[in-house]
Structure formats: C-alpha cells, structure tokens
Amino acid sequence: MILASRFLDFLPYKYMYNQQADPRFNVQPRVHMGYGLLVQLTELCCCHFFFYYSLAVMDSDDELFDALFLAWHSKLIDDEEFCMLFASLEEEVVEAKTYGERLDLDKLTDMKCVELFRFQRSQIRQLGHHLQLPNEMRGPNGCVWKNVEGLCVLLRRLCYPNRLCDLEDTFGLPKSTLSIISNTVCLYLYNTWGRLLGDFAHQAWFSQDVIRECAAAVSRKANLPPLMLNVWGFIDGTLRDCCKPGHNQRVYYSGHKRSHGLKYQGVVAANGMFVHLFGPMAGSRHDAAVFRESGLGNYMRLNLPLTATGDRYRLYGDQAYPLQSQLIRPFANPNPDQARFNRTMSSVRMAVEWGFGEVQKAFAFCDYKKNLKLYLQPIGAYYVVAVLLVNCRTCLNQANEVSTYFGCPPPTLQEYLR
C-alpha cells in the first residue's frame, strides 16, 4: 500500500481522477471506476508503468477487465488474486451503474408514443383507466410503479423484440425491475380481462344486433343471400413459435410447421374484433383437436341466439374443421356451383389471417421465437394479452383492416371493457 500511495502522490491530479481531457492519452473526462482495482494491482505486481498507463488511457470498464485478464495470463497475478480483483471490479461497476429519469409520458409526442407503444398518449391514459389498473402497483421485490408507467413498460416490451437492458434508458429502471413490471402487469390483464376472449356470448357488447350486423356484412361482401350463409365470423388456428424447450420437446413440436411452439384458436368477427381465443395448447395438436378441446361448437349451440327464421348463426373455417350446424367449411369434391362458393368464401375467410397478422405487426415480440422461452416466461399469457390489446386499439381507432374491408364498425372501448 505504501508503494501504491507513493505513485498516487507522483501522478498528477487529472490522471488520478480523470476529470480533464489529455490529448496525449485521448482521455475523456470522467471519474475512473477502476481506481481501487488499479491500486491493488500496483501492490500485487509492483508494475509502475502498468499502473500509470492503465489509469491514464483506459476509459471503459471492458478495457479494465481485459487488463486484469492479461495480468492473470502473464502470470503477474495468481488465481486467488485474479478472483479477488475480478470480484472487486465487478462490484465497483455494479455500484457505479446509473439510470436516467423515470418515464414522463407528457414529454412524448403522439407520434413518438405510437412508435414506442402503439397507442397515442391520450389513448394510453384511456386504456389504463378502462383496464382498471390500480393507481399504484407493487412487485415482489418491493418496487412500486404507477399504472400508466407499468402499462407503458408492458406495451414497449411487447411491441418489438427488445432486450430488457435496451429499455433501461427509456424508463430509468434496471432490467430486473422492468422484467417484474412487465410480467406483473401482463398477468394482471390476463387474469382480469381474459374472460373477454372466452365467454364472449355473455359480454354486453356482443349482442344479437352485432351478430346480425356482422352476418349481413359477410353476406354482402361474399355476394351471397343472407339466409344461405348466416356467417358472422371466421375461425382458424395459429402456431406461435418458441425456443426448443428443455424437456417435453416432442409434445410442443409441430411436424407440419417443423417448429416448437404453442397452438391457439381464434375467431375474428366481421367488425375486426377477436371474439374468441382459446389456448395455449401444445404445438403438436391439430386444429380439429384444439376445436374439440375448446368446446366452442357446444358453446355456440347453447349460447348464441337464432336467426329470425330459426336458423343458426355460423362460423366459417377451412378443411381442418368438422362440419357442424354452427360451423361450415369448403365443400369437398365440389360441383361447379360449390366450387364457386368455395372460391368466394375463401376470399373473405382471409379476414382471420389478417387478424392474426395484425397481432404480429403490432406486437412483434410475440413473433420472436428466440426470446420466447417456455418454462421461463409466461409466454402463453403474452399472446392472449397481445390479442386483448389489439382489440382495445381497434376500439380506440374505430377501424382496422378487417372492419374496413367488411364495412362493419367495432364497438367503443367503453362498450368492450364494460
């Protein structure tokens, strides 16, 4: 320590604390975080030039770590000293980590809010209010956040495949806290509002008038008589890819898609809303098996109203689905008239694909398999919440690609989240 102190007295003040730039060493003005480490290196190595040179020119923590590894590789320090110095430097780096200000939504323009969160600034506040998020939420580690801030963290997490460390500057919080906030808010929305995508027949907004209006819009677009069709929505399945899990790999592997993932079943109405979403199911399951597990056929038979003529309102699906009184599909081995019907309905059935595409476009994190880790993250809830948020955005904007195509307006946000 005496040797180190003598050299510290010898060094100019600006090299010791690095507060002024020196053109000889291209040093940037800042307080050097590796000061304590280099003092210990000087004591251990008695290498005066190494100490002076390192303190003067190393302007990043990576360079300090490199110097430490070089000293160990050159046998200047042994294994025990290396471990001690490495732990010391790592502790200094962690303690020196600083973050910016917490998110202030008022400082962002509407254009920036749409870019970051997929909603305008006023829409985010409306969403936080109507989703009934608590004014203040607390995580298991004791961190506290406001409802709008937590909603913004979740939206930012879902809208693009960011790493959590990339969001630290945006929200002024460490990545561990951001992970807790996003997962806590996601699970809150899943547990509170997931019913909107399950028991849809008993929701206030999904009335008989809405079903009749959707069926009329589909018949009008398909240029078919309403009494012949009575189709109000479209059903399909989707596989959301994820990383190969550590176990049960065969269960989650889809041979058709040649990927591991989770299977969902969705129903999109002519007004652009996801009326029903069932899942997640194992990726190896067929669409027909998922339909059977969901019980959707019996649910519609028992809960949906009949038409004025006593007929049933129906969904339209592809050949994977069974033919039922509540569900129709393309004709097999069709005659010319039936082939014309298949072509016409195939063109309008693409609405359900547009709906799934809207979710992927708005919340691309749900489509980034490399960061979706089964058994480590609530990835099943991620997609359900993303669909719920897409529905909310459709209500706030009063239009999306599907509703514009059929000319059928969606409900308002107040009606949907009633």
Layout of secondary structure:
Layout: H1 2-10, H2 13-17, H3 35-45, H4 48-57, H5 61-73, H6 79-96, H7 110-117, H8 121-130, E1 136-138, E2 144-146, H9 147-159, H10 168-171, H11 175-193, H12 208-222, H13 226-229, E3 231-241, H14 249-252, E4 253-254, E5 259-269, E6 274-282, H15 287-294, H16 296-303, E7 314-316, E8 327-328, H17 336-362, H18 379-397, H19 401-406, H20 413-416
Parallel strand pairs: 3-7, 7-8
Antiparallel strand pairs: 1-2, 3-5, 4-5, 5-6
Helix pairs in contact: 1-3, 3-4, 3-6, 5-6, 9-11, 11-18
Percent range of helical residues: 40-55%
Shape: elongated
Mean of all residue-level pLDDT scores: 84
Structural class: alpha/beta
Strand content: 5-15%
Overview of this protein structure:
The protein is α/β, with parallel strands linked by helices. Helix content is 51%, strand content 11%. It contains 20 helices and eight strands. It has helices at 2-10, 13-17, 35-45, 48-57, 61-73, 79-96, 110-117, 121-130, 147-159, 168-171, 175-193, 208-222, 226-229, 249-252, 287-294, 296-303, 336-362, 379-397, 401-406, 413-416; strands at 136-138, 144-146, 231-241, 253-254, 259-269, 274-282, 314-316, 327-328. The strands form two sheets. Strands 3, 4, 5, 6, 7 and 8 form a six-stranded mixed β-sheet that branches. β4 (253-254) and β5 form a beta hairpin. The protein is elongated and about 90 Å long. The N and C termini lie far apart (71 Å).
